[in-house]
Amino acid sequence: MSDIEKRKADHIQVSLEEDVANSHNYWDDLHLIHDSLPEVDLDEIDTTTVLFGRKLSAPLMVTAITGGYNDATKVNLNLAEACASLGIALGIGSQRAAIERGDRASYEVIRDVGVPLVVANLGAPQLIPQAHKEAFGTEQAREAMEMVGADVLAVHLNYLQEVAQPEGDTRARGCLDAIRSLAREVPCIAKETGAGISRETALRLKGAGVIGFDISGTSGTSFSKVELHRSRRMGNARCVAIGETFAEWGIPAPISVRLAQVGLPIIASGGIVDGLKAAKSIATGAQCAGLARAVLKDAMISAEAAEERLRTIIEELKVGMFLTGSSTVQQLASKKVVFTGPAREWGLEMEVI
Ligand SMILES: Cc1cc2nc3c(=O)[nH]c(=O)nc-3n(C[C@H](O)[C@H](O)[C@H](O)COP(=O)(O)O)c2cc1C
Predict the structure, then answer these.
(1) Residue 149 has what DSSP assignment?
(2) What is the pTM of this model?
(3) Using an 8 Å Cβ cutoff, are 195 and 247 in contact?
(4) How many CB atoms neighbour CB 269 within 10 A?
(5) C-alpha to C-alpha distance for 3 and 7, rounded to whole angstroms
(6) 20 to 30 Å CA-CA from 140: which of 22, 24, 269, 321?
(7) Quick check: 57 and 87 in contact, CB under 8 A?
(8) Would the CB of 93 count as within 6 Å of ligand 1?
């Protein structure tokens, strides 16, 4: 196994075996208001929505998880079949391995399966030169998109992960300009990986031409924790320390949804583990909810298991809509959200509630 393959396999293994979640899920601090008289039948509720011009049966996306090593092929195919069957969106894991080494098989499997919205994935650190590595440009971005039949490209912003990683790419100067160049040529969204996007960063990215955000804030998978467990296994004490110190670093996911309201579509991810949290994210201001780790275990088993897990989440979202008297996603988006506890403190401090 090459270094990238090993890293990708480690991420899955660590995410399944270790406690890698942020210690607090801020979605638990948010509450929707119960409507005792919904005046709509549960069966009548319409969860359909349109994101980046594509019709989805529900405002839900499985966000980037994996690719680039053998076992990833099955995981990605399972996810693609589940998302196609349900009519929801799918993001593929970082395609760096395919671009650098031509190892495309584990990515290409999601092409032509019938997923209504496919999101390709490259890292912002790869858009600028790193030590001994050349930068990716438009050609590689097009290749990544074509490989999976993507509608949009997610440029992931993962510097928290890179600093907690023994082999991390820590050059960041020039990323915004690189995103600007890319966004002129291909439809790009900016995607965090668990630390959230601030208002200032959202505005800079909008100025650079991105067409949306996946804010991926704190509440769910902490990549600092993922890397700390990897560093522990590799016996790298300094990276273990950094991983522990920054384990909870980032902007809470619901707060980032509010901060990133700059007139572009938002995918809310980080800690979405059930359909009620997905419903809360829509009422908070997102156009779509995103989740990764909540479906990982089932995606390792089979397409049917992944589909069942996601179907339950969609049903819960529908129940959340029913109990708030929302017959459409648009109506859910207009419902009041009550912020309590730590999310309220953040919201007041950041002046977004
Ligand atoms: C095992 C694993 C691998 C991931 N790999 C990627 C990746 O390659 N690219 C990316 O943009 N995000 C990646 N992510 C981040 C997720 O897409 C998501 O932003 C983050 O995990 C927060 O969502 P969650 O709390 O639902 O897991 C990965 C997440 C997990 C759990």
Answers:
(1) T
(2) 0.98
(3) no
(4) 34
(5) 6
(6) 269
(7) yes
(8) yes
The predicted model gives 113-136 an average pLDDT of 95
Return the ligand 1 atom nearest residue 91 CA: 17
Of 271, 287, 245, 242, which Cα lies nearest the Cα of 343?
271
Rounded CA-CA distance 352/302 in Å is 41
Q: Which of the listed residues 60, 63, 69, 189 should we mutate to test ligand 1's pocket, taking the one with most ligand atoms within 8 A of CB?
A: 63
Distance CA 158, CA 7 (A): 15
Contacts of 59 (CB under 8 A, 6+ apart): 47, 49, 51, 278, 282, 286, 287, 288, 289, 317, 329
Dihedral, CA atoms, 254, 259, 264, 266, nearest 10 degrees?
A: -10
> Cβ(229)–Cβ(19) under 8 Å?
no
Token match 């912003």: residue? 157
Looking up tokens 């671009």 gives 99
292 lines ligand 1 (CB under 6 A): yes
52 conformational bin, left if phi > 0, alpha if psi -120 to 50, beta if neither: left
**What sign does the CA torsion over 34, 37, 42, 44 have?**
negative
Closest CA to 65 of 167, 274, 216, 210: 216
Tens digit of pLDDT for each residue in 192-225? 999 999 999 999 999 999 999 999 999 999 999 9
Q: Which two tokens stand for residue 331?
A: 């109506």
d(CA 56, CA 284): 19
Q: Which CATH superfamily is domain 3-349 in?
A: Aldolase class I (3.20.20.70)
71 close to 103: Cβ distance less than 8 angstroms: no
Paired tokens of 102: 């031509």
Cα–Cα distance, 64 to 79 (Å, whole number):
11
What per-residue confidence (pLDDT) applies to 5? 84
* Contact call for residues 166 and 142 (beta carbons, < 8 A): no
Neighbour tally for 116: CB within 10 Å? 17
* The one-letter amino acid at 251: I
**Rounded Cα gap, residues 116 and 100, in angstroms:** 28
Give the single-character DSSP code of 218: B
3-state secondary structure of 92: coil
Using DSSP bridges, classify how beta strands 30-32 and 337-339 pair: parallel, antiparallel or unpaired.
antiparallel
Q: How far is the CA of 342 from the centre of ligand 1 (A)?
A: 24
